[in-house]
Amino acid sequence: MSDIDIHPTLIRIADALERLAPSAPPKTDFAAADAFVWHAGPSWLESVPKVNRVDLELLKGIDRQTETLLDNTQRFADSLPANNALLWGARGTGKSSLVKAAHATINKAAPGSLVLIEIHREDIPSLPQLLSLLRNETKRFLLFCDDLSFDTQDDSYKSLKAVLEGGVEGRPANVLFYATSNRRHLMARDMIENERSTAIHASEAVEEKVSLSDRFGLWLGFHNCNQDTYFAIVEGYAEKFGLNAADIDLRAEANEWSVTRGSRSGRVAWQYIQDLAGRLGKSLDMD
Q1: Do 90 and 222 contact (CB within 8 A), yes or no?
Q2: Domain ranges of the chain
Q3: pLDDT for 229-263, tens place per residue?
Q4: Model pLDDT for residues 19-51, shown as the tens digit of each residue
């Protein structure tokens, strides 16, 4: 068969391969929104027109954590040195709410100065790919992973370690990483004990995984709130949304709600407020 004979066949094969190939991801317009969600497959950033957040002044009982994280975030927005942050502790105590509130506070003072990008736990291995998209941008990016932890035989933490500290390229100067977790060392205690009991050198067995948390320069601990703080959270929400009705004993109802849930936290307070607003026929619009 001559070259002339096979040319049409090659053209058809090339056209078929082009149709099968995935289309190039659209270029992200970072001026279109202040927040995005990263999708690893296919790789693209989805804009978030309205972030699900709580106003900073409604976060009670975490004043020190708020001041520290807000200061760290402001320095980063001002192109000054800042630390990656790990917010760890009890469930429902305001860890992720604080990250989103700090981002909103910075952008309220200087609109568009900081872009929030949420990356899901299962997409951590794609972090290097995301950073390659952000490295040459002029904007400053706050990467956020909620409820971060690692289980046995999970090697995806190595991608995060290279991003936080180390690697040839390292973390771009215009990117900061915040994570929340119920675990201070990002792995369960029974996993640590199991590694120690089965390893030849017990201390070395967990060093690689435990050292991941050491790569966060800023650690902020969150703990269950006491009753006074819980009431302050409930009353702050009630005042914000106009839920103070004369025939409702707010503290008595909020206390009963917490007893049925078996805990007191900002999340439990918000769940009570949602129930109360529904009964009163009022909306809970943060804007």
Answers
A1: yes
A2: 35-222, 227-280
A3: 999 999 999 999 999 988 999 999 999 999 999 98
A4: 665 555 567 889 889 999 999 878 899 999 999
Nearest to 105 by CA among 60, 48, 67, 151: 67
> Pairing state of beta strands 85-89 and 175-181?
parallel
| DSSP H or E segment with residue 142 | strand 141-145
Residue 252 has what pLDDT? 96
pLDDT of residue 243: 94
Buried b / exposed e across 138-156, counting CB within 10 Å, b at 16+?
A: eebbbbbbbebbbeeeeee
Domain 35-222 has CATH 3.40.50.80: no
Percentage helix, strand, coil for the chain under 3-state DSSP, each rounded to 5: 50, 15, 40
Quote the CA–CA distance of 245 and 191 in Å, as a whole number.
Answer: 49
Distance in angstroms (rounded) separating the CA atoms of residues 84 and 42? 27
3-state DSSP call for residue 25? coil
Supply the pLDDT for residue 200. Answer: 46
Residue 213: per-residue pLDDT: 77
Q: What is the pLDDT of residue 176?
A: 95
In whole angstroms, give the CA distance from residue 98 to residue 70. Answer: 9
Name the amino acid, one letter, at 213: S
Spell out the residues 6+ positions from residue 44 whose beta carbon is closer than 8 angstroms to its own.
25, 26, 28
| Regions in the chain scoring below 50 on pLDDT | 1, 195-196, 199-202, 205
CA 248/CA 216 separation, integer angstroms = 45
Residue 238 burial (CB < 10 Å; 0-12/13-18/19+)? Answer: buried
Give me the pLDDT at residue 201, please: 47
First-to-last alpha carbon distance for the chain, in angstroms, is 71
